[in-house]
TrEMBL record:
Membrane-topology annotation of the record: Multi-pass membrane protein
Protein name: Protein NRT1/ PTR FAMILY 2.11
Matching CDD domains: MFS_NPF1_2 (cd17416)
UniProt GO molecular function: transmembrane transporter activity
Gene3D superfamilies associated with the record: MFS general substrate transporter like domains (1.20.1250.20)
Amino acid sequence: MEKMEKMENGGAPPSPAIKYYGWKAMPYIIGNETFEKLGTLGTSSNLLVYLTSVFHIKSVDAATLINAFSGTTSFAPIIGAFLSDAYLGRYTTLAYCSVASLLGMFILTLTAGVSGLHPRDCKVGDTCQKASPGQMAVLFASFAFLVVGAGGIRPCSMPFGADQFNPNTEDGKRGINSFFNWYYFTFTGAMMISATVIIYIQSTVSWSIGLAIPTILMFLACVFYFMGTKIYVKVLPDGSPFTSIVQVFSAAIKKKGLKQVKDPNQGLFDPPHVSSLVTKLHHTDQFRFLDKAAVVTSSDEIKPNGSPVDQWKLCSVQQVEEVKCLLRIIPIWTTGIIYYLAVVQQSTYVILAALQSDRHLGPHFQIPAASFTVFSMLAQTLWIPFYDRLLVPRLRKLTGKEEPISLLQRMGIGIFLSTVAMVVSAVIEVKRRNIANHGSTIGTMLGGGAISSMSSLWMVPQLMILGVSEAFNLISQIEFYYKEFPEHMRSVAGALAFLNLAFGNYLSGFLVTIIHNTTGAEGRKNWLSQDLNKGKLDLFYWVIAGIGVFNMIYFIACAKWYRFKGTRQ
C-alpha cells in the first residue's frame, strides 16, 4: 500500500516516509487524462452545432447557452480546487469528478439516441418542433454533471500527477519537469483528435454514434484511473487553506500599531518545522507589514506543543511567508490574462477570416473553418517532444544547469511569440483583404461578403507561432503555479490557468465591443465589419500586438521583482 502523509504547519510528528512510484504511475494518470479529453473536449466544442441541429434552438439562444456553459466550466475549477485542498484530497476529487463526467456524457448520449429525449427531426423549409421542458431538463442535467466533472478534473489532474514524483531528489525534480511537458503533449494530441475525427463523426455520420464513442472513452478514462489506485501517492487535505490566509491578515491588522522588529530571527514566532512535504519558508523582506502577524507580544500565549492559543492574533513565520508567496504570484498571473487576449483570437477572428479565404485543398475537399485551430495544436504537439528530448538535454550540457531556461524566461518567450503572431496576422489580413477588394474572388459567403482567392493556408504560420507560444507560456504557467504555491494549495494553483483563459475571453469580448462601437460610429469605417473586406481587422490585430508589447514590459518588471519560494531575504 502507498504511504500517505498529511501536510502540517507544526505541532505533530512527521508521518512515515512516502514511497514514490514516479513514472510507473504515469500510464494510469496520463491514460486517464487522454481518454477524458478525447471524451469531453470534442463534444464540448461541437455543442453549438448539436443544440441548433438536434434541439432546434435558435443560434443566438444556443450561443448564449454555450457561453454560460463555458463560463461556468471555467470558474468551476476554483470551487473544485478549494474542496480538494480543504476537504477531499486530489485522489478522491478526481475519482468523484471522473464518474460525474462519465454520467454527463452518458446522459448527453441518451438525448441523441433516445427519440423521446429530443425534438423530432425536421427538413429544410419545415417548421421545426421546439424542445419540451422535460427534454431541456435532461439536457441541462448532462451539462450539470459535465460542469461538476470539469470542476474537479481540470485543477487536480496535473498536480496529482506531479505528486507522484519525489520533489526532494534530482530524479524526482527532473521527472516533474518532464511530466508537465508530456502531460500537455497528450492533452494537445487528444484535442487534435477530438477536433477532427470525433467532430466529423458527430456532424456527418451520426450524433448517437458520435456521442457514444466519447462516452466509451470516458469510461476507459475511469478504468485507467482506478487501476493505479494502489500505487498512487495521496496527499491528504489539511483543512481550508484560505483560513490561514485570513488569519495572517487579521493578526497583522490587529497589530498594525506595533513597530517592525529589528531582528526577524529573534522577534518573530517561528516554531520548528516538522513537515516533510511542505517547504520550510524563510523570512523575506517583501510585504513587511504582514510580519506584524508573527510578532510575539506579552499578551500572546503559546501552547505546550508550540502552537499559539489564539491563531487569529499570532501566526507563524511559515504562515506569513505562504501569504507572501500568493501576493508575489498575483502580478505574474495577471500577465497571463493579457497574454490570452492574443491566443483566443484563433477561435474567433481567425475563423471568420478563414471563411472569407480559399479553403480548398484540391478540387473536392475544403477545410472546415473551425478546424484551423488544429494547426496551433499541431505546432504544440511537434514542439514539446523536440524541446523536452532534444533541446533541453543539449542546453543542460552547455549551461550546466538542470533547468537551462527558467520558468519565467519560458513564459516571457511565450508572451513575445504571441505578439509576433499578432503582427504576422495583421500582415496576412492586409494581403487577404487586398486580394478580395482589388484582385480575384471565388464566390460570396451566405451572409454576404466576397471570398478572397488567397489560400487560407497563408494563416497557418500565425497559428503555428501561437501554438509554440502556448507550449512555452501555458505549460510554464501551470508548472510555475504548482511549484510556487504553498503545497497545500496546489489544486487552487491548477485552477489559475483556467481562470486566465476565462478572463482572457472576457477581455477579448470587451475589447471587441469597444472597438466595434467606437469605429462603427456614423461616418466611420468599422474595423470589425460583418464583411471583413470592408473592415480593418489588421488594425485590431495591431492593437492586440501593442497591448502585447506593454504586457511584455510589465512581465519583465514583475519577473525581476519576483522572489522564488524558499529563497532567503
